[in-house]
Design goal:
By secondary structure, the protein is an alpha/beta fold. The protein has 3 domains: about 5-15 and about 25-125, Tetratricopeptide repeat domain (Serine Threonine Protein Phosphatase 5, Tetratricopeptide repeat); about 135-240, Immunoglobulin-like (Sandwich); about 300-535, Zn-dependent exopeptidases (Aminopeptidase, 3-Layer(aba) Sandwich). Helix content is about 40%, strand content about 20%. It has 15 helices and 18 strands. The strands form 4 sheets. A 6-stranded mixed β-sheet has the order 13-12-14-17-15-16, with helices on both faces. The protein has a 5-stranded mixed β-sheet with strand order 5-1-2-10-9, with helices on one face.
Length: about 525
């Protein structure tokens, strides 16, 4: 892709003379207005499906952010605009333009909070592999009902490779480039679990530390890295129980019409339709709708339903999150909204709700998804309040995590399976990969429902759209997962508004409406509110 006509060259030509002591109020106001326009255009771009976004669409948004900088480089909006431009260039595969923009940001804004991220992005986009050896400092683990989570604390960014070996059965994870802390030499951790016998760690070669899991009755093992602080997470899961063919998501089999519960041959036209007892609520069964992008995931094809939701109130305890200008903390705001949302989902949808925290306690990020996995939740919703160094920024946005295998690889695997005699185990692995892809599709769908509802709330500010980003709290969750930014608590107007119970209730109701509309789009019994509307 050629550099945009105005492009980064125009930025490089702008004089960066020292900022005057007194900021030009007119220029500041113009930059603020231009930044809000650019954010609005970006939100519109994010509403489009990825496949429908054109190069011209991206260049229009990039030009809007470029205008912010060109008005004056001496505001807090400038580096925000530059880092966003670099990301947009990268999304259009214009890596050269992204690198130029990032290098410009690093050189001209050495005090920017985006400097470290920009340096790492330049190295990544340039194909530079950072080989600094890091220390493996500690190994921790805890057990769930049918899982074990292992945390390996490391001193920086690492690569890892997972494998298995036989005689005896064991799983290993190689970490590199890494050196084992001397206090861990020869260490072993016996595990009182049917899944694992013990955990071992050692220096495999000069640059590789190997973690070995002596296996018991393991179903599968999943590994991933997290940042701030750096650590490797290894999840060990037991073998799944066989599915219950006659299970019903809400209530007992009595809530399904008897004719539907019988095999087709038993429900003959001449059969007498049994009378419905007065105390049995026969609910209407509806087919799942296609997603907003027009696809029908495996979740919808199999008629899966919503029965349990895990709500995660962000931060807590010593982790206050963002603190507003008047002292209102993110942790207390989101806990209150989460509790209100819990009550709405339980009373209105009849679904079970599990909270990752119900009071002002600190819960590690990796524990939050572990709770959702252990509870076998259908949805995971993390609630946060946004922050910006620019106090005037307002609005709502909803994120989902996208870390699926490539569609190309999955399609290739499907063709190979159709033409060869693969084992059942290999086919099960393929299905798991497809479900991982579908989890992301459903996460995107859930995010769209929630964002639409949040943005419709009076006083919500700009609809900043649905976005995808590597939020730590979403990594590792086995179910559709989203992170909702319900407001900007760094905005004095928003902070004052959300301190009122009425506003927090309105936010909870908009979150609930997003969950409800998503649930209705799935196959399942209609909610009470839907039935009332259909009878009017």
């Amino acid at each position: 892709m050629n550099i945009h006509a105005v492009g980064i060259a125009a930025l490089l030509s702008v004089s960066l003379s020292a900022a005057p002591q007194a900021q030009n109020a007119s220029l500041l106001q113009k930059a603020r207005q231009a930044y809000m326009v650019a954010q609005s255009l970006e939100a519109g771009l994010n509403e489009k499906p990825q496949a429908e976004r054109t190069r011209a669409d991206y260049l229009k948004v990039i030009s809007a952010y470029e205008r912010v900088y060109l008005i004056t480089p001496h505001t807090g909006y400038a580096d925000n605009s530059l880092i966003t431009m670099a990301r947009l260039y990268e999304e259009t595969k214009a890596d050269a333009d992204a690198i130029k923009t990032l290098k410009f940001l690093i050189r001209e804004y050495p005090a920017s909070p985006f400097k470290d991220a920009a340096e790492k992005d330049v190295a990544r986009l340039s194909g530079i592999k950072l080989q600094r050896t890091v220390a493996v400092d500690n190994v921790r683990y805890w057990e769930g009902q049918n899982s074990v989570r292992i945390i390996v604390d490391v001193g920086g960014e690492i690569r890892f490779n997972q494998g298995d070996a036989k005689n005896p059965d064991r799983v290993f994870v190689d970490i590199s480039p890494a050196k084992l802390n001397s206090i861990l030499l020869g260490k072993q951790w016996p595990v009182k679990s049917s899944l694992l016998q013990q955990i071992r760690v050692g220096q495999y070669d000069n640059s590789t530390v190997r973690v070995v899991l002596d296996a018991g009755n393991i179903g599968r093992v999943s590994s991933f890295t997290l940042r701030d602080p750096d650590r490797l997470v290894i999840d060990v899961f037991g073998k799944e129980a066989p599915p219950q063919l006659a299970s019903v998501s809400a209530g007992s089999a009595a809530s399904v019409p008897i004719a539907m519960a019988l095999p087709p041959s038993s429900a003959s036209p001449s059969a007498t339709t049994p009378k419905k007892p007065a105390d049995i609520d026969v609910k209407t069964i509806t087919a799942a709708k296609a997603t907003n992008s027009g696809t029908r995931s495996l979740v919808r094809s199999l008629g899966l339903k919503l029965s349990r939701v895990v709500i995660d109130a962000g931060h807590g305890g010593h982790d206050t999150g963002t603190v507003g200008h008047a002292g209102y903390t993110e942790k207390e705001l989101v806990l209150d909204v989460a509790q209100r949302l819990k009550e709405l989902i339980e009373t209105e949808l009849g679904a079970e709700v599990v909270m990752t925290r119900s009071d002002d306690s600190f819960v590690p990020l990796e524990t939050r998804t572990a709770i959702a996995n252990e509870e076998q939740a259908d949805l995971f919703i993390s609630i946060h309040a946004n922050s910006s160094p620019v106090g005037s920024v307002r609005g709502v946005e909803t994120y989902f995590l996208n870390f699926t295998s490539s569609r190309e690889a999955l399609e290739t695997a499907s063709r190979e399976n159709a033409a060869s005699e693969r084992s059942i185990h290999e086919l099960q692995d393929l299905v798991k990969k497809i479900m991982l892809r579908d989890k992301v599709d459903e996460s995107r769908e859930l995010a769209q429902h929630i964002e639409r509802s949040l943005a419709a709330r009076k006083g919500s500010g700009i609809d900043r759209g649905v976005k995808q980003a590597p939020f730590v709290v979403l990594i590792g969750a086995n179910m559709p997962s989203v992170l909702a930014e319900i407001c900007f608590i760094s905005n004095p107007q928003d902070e004052k508004l959300v301190k009122t119970p009425q506003s927090r209730q309105a936010i909870a109701e908009s979150l609930y409406e997003g969950v409800r509309s998503y649930a209705v789009s799935l196959s399942g019994t209609k909610t009470a509110k839907t039935q009332e509307k259909s009878q009017e």
